[in-house]
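Q: Convert this sequence to structure tokens.
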Amino acid sequence: MHKLLKITLANRGEQALYYSKIDDFSKDYLINEVELDRLVKAAVKKQAKTFINKKIKIEIENTNLDVATDNKWLSFILDQVLSNALKYTKYGGRTEHNKKDKY
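A:
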């Protein structure tokens, strides 16, 4: 099986598991202070092979801060953001991810 297909199938399986737990969300939700930079780097590392294979450059800025969140759920969201970035960024493209002061 092609490596990219294996990664995609693994991501879809993980996504299905998280969605199936949404009803139990309040029971599974544990708020802690976590380093955003650590979670972002872990999410990028999971997708590193795809970034390399598609020759996509990634720029990450302003993530050096602590946030109050559930580690698993924020990791899941970051994985989804990166997965979509990889899906919709053309070969040899670039993707930027940063924290803005105001929205």
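DSSP finds five helices and four strands in the chain.
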